[in-house]
Amino acid sequence: MTRGTAQLPVLNVIGAGKVGMTLARLLRDAGQVTLGSLFSRDIDNARSAVQFAGDGEAVDEFDNLRPADLWLLSVPDGAIATAASRLAGTPFPWRDRRVFHCSGLHSSALLEPLARQGALVASLHPAHSFANPGASLTDFASTLCTVEGAATLCGRLTDLFEALGAKVIAINPESKALYHCANTVASNYLVSLMATSLELLQAADIGESDGRAILAPLVRQTLDNIFNFGPEAALTGPIARADVNTVKAHLDALSTSDAHLQATLYRMLGRITVTIANRATPERADDRLAIENLFREQR
Ligand SMILES: NC(=O)c1ccc[n+]([C@@H]2O[C@H](COP(=O)([O-])OP(=O)(O)OC[C@H]3O[C@@H](n4cnc5c(N)ncnc54)[C@H](OP(=O)(O)O)[C@@H]3O)[C@@H](O)[C@H]2O)c1
Do residue 100 and residue 212 come from a single domain? Predict the structure, then answer.
């Protein structure tokens, strides 16, 4: 049975940027909420968000916010605490209202001023890049989200996001910094690794376009192997084979070019790679001692 619009909770979004407008649209399209106020400090940004979300009212003053059942604070991380304090200073009755933010780093403790007034507070972080909100509308389903905070609200958010096709798991608020660090290493450092590899290919006189053609299938295949079979099974190459001569040739090549940072990166990740290789084939750990010594050398 389709629920009538009148029974749906009203969602207000404070900070109607990439995450705010995308989640507003997805939750509305899924028939989970009706949209109330979409707030940005710049009214043009708020209007763009309303246009993208397909409903709601553009607002650029806290005094003009409508009452709502559910509040998403999708301002930048550094502005969440201030936004929560400002909302707590409005005349809205906060008892039993539901308020959440989407920071991967911070917990629901940032929403304490609202919790003190009886609001149920939580943080829900989608492990998803909202860089292109249009693409997120189709890509969001199957995103994994972590949630912590008031149990009733965590349950409600789990229902809402599962209705979008997402999977929701609980996280310990004290683990959020490590959790967010892990996401950053995987997503942002992968970019840095690919950029480093492209630069080394250019130093070897291979242009950017050919460099991408070399890396794209190699990296995609490696990612598939990691996620299908695990890091130990996915590892190939000189460290897996305990081939000290090849590793030495790489370090020599890096020492003759202007690549001090890249050489440091090669040695640091090499040490981690040795531990993965030793987990995969512990019987060859002694053969890798010479490689470990190369990585420890200061050049
Ligand atoms: N982007 C992602 O891929 C992603 C993924 C997961 C979680 N998150 C989290 O989602 C939240 C929002 O990120 P986002 O990428 O959507 O940010 P964003 O695109 O920069 O949007 C931020 C919104 O907040 C408003 N805003 C900026 N500074 C403000 C302030 N000081 N006070 C009030 N409003 C302010 C902005 O509009 P005005 O400048 O007009 O005020 C804009 O509407 C963050 O907690 C972030 O960690 C982001």
Answer: no
52 shares its domain with 161: yes
CATH of the domain at 191: 1.10.1040
Residue 227's Cβ-side half-sphere holds a number of Cα atoms within 13 Å equal to 6
- Atom number, ligand 1, closest to the C-alpha of residue 76: 44
Whether residue 146 has its Cβ less than 6 Å from ligand 1: no
Give, using CA atoms, the residue closest to atom 1 of ligand 1.
Answer: 130
**Domain shared by 193 and 275, yes or no:** yes
In this predicted structure, what is the pLDDT of residue 5? Answer: 54
Residue 71 lies in a domain: yes
Which residues 6+ apart lie within 8 Å of 267 measured at CB? 251, 294, 295, 296
Please identify every stretch of the chain with a pLDDT value under 50, giving residue numbers as ranges.
Answer: 1-4
Using one digit for the tens of pLDDT, what is the confidence trace for 93-117? 999 999 999 999 999 999 999 999 9
- Which ligand 1 atom is nearest residue 101's CA? 45
Here the tokens at position 3 are 């629920």
pLDDT, position 6: 58
Residues 245 and 154 in one domain: no
Q: Give the rounded distance of the alpha carbon of 228 from its chain centre.
A: 21
Query: Cβ(77) to ligand 1 under 6 A?
Result: yes
Q: What is the pLDDT of residue 258?
A: 83
**Pair 164, 209 in one domain:** no
The per-residue pLDDT for 121 is: 98
pLDDT value for 257? 72
